[in-house]
Each structure stands twice: as structure tokens, then as C-alpha cells.
Write a structure and sequence with these properties.
By secondary structure, the chain is an all-alpha fold. It has one domain (21-217, 230-490): MFS general substrate transporter like domains (Growth Hormone, Chain: A), CATH 1.20.1250.20. The protein is built from 19 helices and no strands.
Length: 491
């Protein structure tokens, strides 16, 4: 049996999943074809938070246009659009399991673009807020599709590296738009920022239409001849969803699809780690939505930066994400290879979490430095603290995504959607309390308490999961099997 297994080109690793003897299996695609899909899905993952972040760059212009305050703009548009970014993923992943990745991605991005254009032209605040929230709900689809696509086309030993690239896309995206458009809105209307965001979304949509292919491969049907169209007609029907509709009868039924997320979220090896990640990433969302207020407000509340200075400061988290991606790429692979060597050739998912031990000291250092910088109005401390915190968040996020994906290889979509929901729920409300709290008690208290909460959850969740994760997996699987046998015996 071992001699019949397919290996990586260097002959050192067993490919998993084992590619089928079918050129249509995405695991058999060329490296160039796979790279194209990774680039497109990463560019797509940038769209949701990039669009949401345009509001951060435009916050003062929006307040002036709609005759209100920056806090009202944050509360009414930014926070609720972030909230819907999380819930949208749960909805889209259900459709994806039935009808495929490509049609759901295409239609969601088409509607997201339409609503973004609507927000660009919105005549009043109510219309603008509604369009931003709908943009977030529809636009979040690539943030849950990427984990599916990576596991569809890449073997296990390459998935952590590729996930590092994909996660960097949506981690860096909320900082890109304040950086790019901060300079623009200093000289032009905020509507131009949203118009350019619409152009980027249109470019991504065109890349999906012309270059993206369906990566969902029904391995249990690989040996069965199916009646499907070919050529240009097949391409059109797959993009529109006709092929997915025809194939749905071979795929999981609606009851299973609707309950799949619930089947994952209650498991202890998932729940505690994701709760920990919710605060880690959630507070970074809070940084993104409130730092612009701290930097733009006059002393003693903030630094009194000009619009240009605020935009320039957002280069800090962008550089930090790139540093985190570079470090994480090699750290995760080193930990995986070391664990396999020490474990007799076997891999356990809990080894992924060792990266968190590197991330957390950086997290504490970054948040305390940032809090001291805001409290004492130190520009150097603001920049250094912000950058170190984002490096830590990038490292931790990749580790958690890789761990959860390894624990539930058949639930990649649900894992991605639940993680997306967790980080949205962890961060959408931070803007409500962070600025008033920092104004009253000082930035060091606020960011110190947030870091303490994260470290407390880290101490509870990560060591316990590493010690008991395999036990949880075996015990839960045994419990489900026994329950299924009891139900069968009753019938």
C-alpha cells in the first residue's frame, strides 16, 4: 500500500489528499495554475476589509457631508458593517458546500460591488449606512472561501505556507485603504475614495470571471461518468451556478449543511482556541477603527495629526503584516518539520499552536507600548507599539487558522466562517468604548487591560488544547459513533 502512495516531487513527503488519476483534480493542476488562483483569492480577500477601511480614511469628510460627528459615523457605519462581515460568512459557506466555490464567489462579489457603488453615490446618511452594511455582508465571501481554495488545490505540507499568504491579505487590507485614501481625502471628496474602491472591486470581479475556476472536486464521484457540458458553455454554466445546481444532488443535503457550523463550534478543541483568537484579532479591529480618532483629535485626547500624517501612520501596520508574514512562513514550517521528525513521522495538529508562544510576548509588548504612546502623546511609542502588536496578531492568526483546519479537514469552510465571525464579534464593539475609556483612564490602562484579557485566555486555552486536543478529538468522535449506533439500534 505504501509503495502505491503518491509523493511530492522531491520524494520526501506523502501527498495528502492523494490526487486522483484525473487531470481535472485541482491537486493535479500545474504550479502556475495554482499560483494564479492563490493570487486571485488573496486579492479577493482584501476586498471586504479594504472597503470597510475606506470609511476610516473618510470619517471626517463623511461627518462634514452628513452634518454629524465622527463618533456617529463610526457607530452607525463602521461598526455595523464589521458586524455583518462576520455573519455573512456563515451564510455564504452553506451555499458553497452545495453549489461550489466559484458561483457563490462570483455572485457575492457582484452584489458587493453594486452596493459599494450605491454607497459612493448615497445622498444621505441612512442610505450610506445601509449600503455599507450590505457591502460588508456580501463582500465577506472571499474571507471564508480562501481556506476552501487553499485546501482544494494544495497538499497538506504546503497549506500552512499558502494560508500565510492568504491570511496576510485580509489582515493587511483594513490598513491599506486608510493609508492610500488618507492622502486622497485630504485634497478631494470622500466619494472619490469609494469610487476607486469600486474600481478595485471591479478588477477583482473581472479576474474571477476570466481566470478563476471551480476548485471543488467531488472525490467520491471521481470514478463515475457525469453528464456535464464542456468548453465555453461549461465555463459559463459553472460561473453562473448551473453546474453547481446540477451537482448539488451528489453533495451534502440541506440539514447537514445548515447544522455543519454547529457541529464544529461546540467542540472544545475548537471553541477555546477560537475564543482566544476572537480577542486577539478583535482588539486589532479596534485599533484600526479608533487609532484614526486618537491621531486626528487635538490634544489632550489625541495627537492632532494632519490628514497627511494620519495617512502616513497607516504604513506602520502594513509593514508589520509583511514582517509577520515573512516570519510566520518559516516559523510554521520549521515547527511542522521538527514535530514530524520528533514524532516518528506523524503530525499532530496541536503543534501548530507553538507559534502562539512567540506571538504573545510581542502582543504584550506592542499593546503596552501603544497604550503608553497614546497616554503620553509619544509618536515613537505609537508607531513602535502598533507595529509590534500587528506582527504578533499576524503570527497568531495564521497559527490558529492552520490548527483549526488541521483539526477539521472536512470542515474547512465552516472553520473559516466561524473564525471570521469570531474576529468580527470580538472587534466590532471595541470602537464604542475604547476612545471614551482612554479619554477617562488613559491609554495605558485601556490597552493594558486588553492585553491582560488576551494573555489570560491564552493561558487557559492554548496549553490545555495542546495537552488535551487529541483526547478531545478521539473522545468526541467515539461519543458521536456510540450515539449513532444507539439511534440505529432504536430504529
Amino acid at each position: 500500500m505504501a509503495s502505491g502512495l503518491k509523493l511530492s516531487p522531491d520524494g520526501l513527503k506523502v501527498l495528502w489528499p492523494q490526487p486522483a488519476d484525473d487531470p481535472n483534480d485541482p491537486q493535479n493542476w500545474t504550479d502556475f495554475r495554482k499560483t494564479v488562483h492563490l493570487i486571485i483569492i488573496t486579492m479577493s480577500a482584501v476586498v471586504p476589509d479594504f472597503d470597510s477601511g475606506i470609511g476610516i480614511a473618510s470619517i471626517f469628510g463623511l461627518a462634514q457631508t452628513y452634518d454629524t460627528t465622527s463618533s456617529v459615523i463610526n457607530d452607525l457605519t463602521s461598526n455595523w458593517s464589521i458586524f455583518l462581515l462576520g455573519w455573512g460568512g456563515i451564510f455564504w459557506i452553506m451555499l458553497m458546500r452545495r453549489y461550489g466555490r466559484l458561483p457563490v464567489l462570483f455572485w457575492s462579489q457582484l452584489f458587493s460591488l453594486a452596493f459599494l457603488v450605491g454607497g459612493t453615490l448615497a445622498p444621505n446618511l441612512a442610505t450610506f449606512a445601509g449600503m455599507r452594511c450590505l457591502t460588508g455582508f456580501f463582500g465577506t465571501c472571499p474571507q471564508v472561501t480562501g481556506l476552501y481554495v487553499v485546501t482544494d488545490i494544495f497538499p497538506f505540507h504546503l497549506q500552512a505556507r499558502k494560508l500565510n499568504i492568504w491570511t496576510s491579505g485580509f489582515v493587511i487590507s483594513p490598513f491599506l485603504s486608510p493609508f492610500v485614501f488618507g492622502f486622497l481625502v485630504a485634497r478631494a471628496s470622500w466619494r472619490w475614495a469609494y469610487a476607486i474602491g469600486s474600481i478595485y472591486s471591479a478588477i477583482v470581479l473581472l479576474l474571477i470571471v476570466f481566470f478563476m475556476e471551480e476548485t471543488m472536486y467531488d472525490r467520491h464521484l471521481a470514478s463515475k461518468p457525469l453528464q456535464i457540458s464542456t468548453g465555453l458553455r461549461y465555463r459559463f454554466e459553472t460561473l453562473m451556478g448551473v453546474t453547481g445546481y446540477k451537482m448539488a444532488k451528489y453533495r451534502p443535503r440541506w440539514p447537514e449543511v445548515l447544522l455543519a457550523s454547529l457541529d464544529v463550534v461546540w467542540r472544545p478543541q475548537f471553541f477555546f482556541v477560537v475564543l482566544f483568537e476572537a480577542l486577539v484579532f478583535g482588539f486589532s479591529i479596534g485599533l484600526n477603527t479608533t487609532n484614526v480618532v486618537f491621531m486626528g483629535s487635538p490634544p489632550p485626547v489625541g495627537f492632532g495629526f494632519s490628514q497627511y500624517a494620519v495617512a502616513g501612520a497607516y504604513a506602520t501596520p502594513i509593514v508589520a503584516v509583511l514582517i509577520g508574514e515573512f516570519i510566520g512562513r518559516y516559523v510554521n514550517e520549521f515547527i511542522m518539520d521538527l514535530h514530524i521528525r520528533k514524532n516518528g513521522g506523524f503530525f499532530e495538529a496541536e503543534s501548530r499552536l507553538w507559534t502562539c508562544y512567540l506571538a504573545m510576548p510581542l502582543y504584550i509588548c506592542g499593546f503596552l507600548t501603544l497604550g503608553a504612546g497614546i497616554q503620553n502623546l509619544s509618536k515613537a511609542a505609537l508607531i513602535m507599539g502598533w507595529g509590534i502588536a500587528i506582527v504578533a496578531i499576524t503570527l497568531n492568526t495564521v497559527a490558529v487558522y492552520a490548527y483549526c483546519n488541521d483539526c477539521f479537514p472536512r470542515r474547512a469552510g465552516e472553520v473559516s466562517a466561524l473564525l471570521n465571525l469570531a474576529r468580527a464579534l470580538g472587534g466590532f464593539a471595541v470602537a464604542y468604548f475604547q476612545v471614551p475609556w482612554a479619554t477617562k483612564s488613559g491609554g495605558l490602562v485601556v490597552f493594558g487591560v486588553e492585553a491582560a484579557l488576551v494573555i489570560a485566555l491564552f493561558i487557559i486555552a492554548v496549553p490545555m488544547t495542546q495537552l488535551k486536543g487529541s483526547y478531545f478529538r478521539v473522545s468526541v468522535a467515539l461519543f458521536i459513533c456510540v450515539a449513532a449506533l444507539n439511534i440505529e439500534s432504536v430504529h
